[in-house]
Prior knowledge:
Blueprint: E1 2-11, H1 15-22, H2 25-28, E2 38-39, E3 44-47, E4 50-55, E5 60-68, E6 72-83, E7 86-97, H3 101-131, E8 143-144, E9 158-159, H4 170-178, H5 187-194, H6 197-200, H7 205-217, E10 226-229, E11 233-236
Antiparallel strand pairs: 1-7, 2-3, 3-4, 4-5, 5-6, 6-7, 8-9, 10-11
Helix pairs in contact: 3-4, 3-5
Amino acid sequence: MKIRNRHERVLAATPERVAALVADFEQVWPTQIAPAPRRRGPRLFQAGMMVWEEVDRQSAVRAFRVVSPNGLQAEHWFETEPADGGILLRHTIDGEALGEYEEIWRERIEPGHDRVIEALFDKIEATIQIGTRRPNSEQESPRWRIAEIAPDFRLEDVWTLPAQGGAEDFGALLEVMARRPGQIFSRDRLIETLWDATFAAESNIVEVYIRSLRRKVDDGRRDGLIETVRGSGYRLRAPAAG
Length: 242
């Protein structure tokens, strides 16, 4: 069975910055979903049931070949290219699943892979956003203009708040949502992107942060910029058309 899978994300960063993050799985891998690939040799990695060999591939930032199990004959790689607003990061898998691994791919590997790669891209994006904030000379706490993240919003400024639980500050939560106005972010996805799940899974950290942000940007109202979608999660209201 032919297998092909692709994920893409436009990031506001230089190609060098994106490449450096892709090269550092220990920093950006969503370990709350799956352990980071573990080195077994100079170019070999253990990734769950698979063993990857790092290979050279033209134009790829990083590339791997699946060397085990034999039923998965595939390569996967990260590459970048210029895009409006930054750099497009793409991850592609291409190959074949043989015999019993056809069902294993469909039922187990691909669904988990999709979740890991989306969380990986979320974490890379959040790391870039955190790293590019500019300090404000008038405040001890840094702040950024939300207009730089979501230009259609007219919220003037948002101040960062104290760090907890592995997120650099409350600002990272708002930034992640502001990159995609109108998209619903579940509690689990926000935890996967911003916090250590072992710290946050049994806590109400997301609710605490949302409540604090509402006090800052919406005067505590539940019908303001930050919207609760019952049973689904949170989102920033998309700007009205026109």
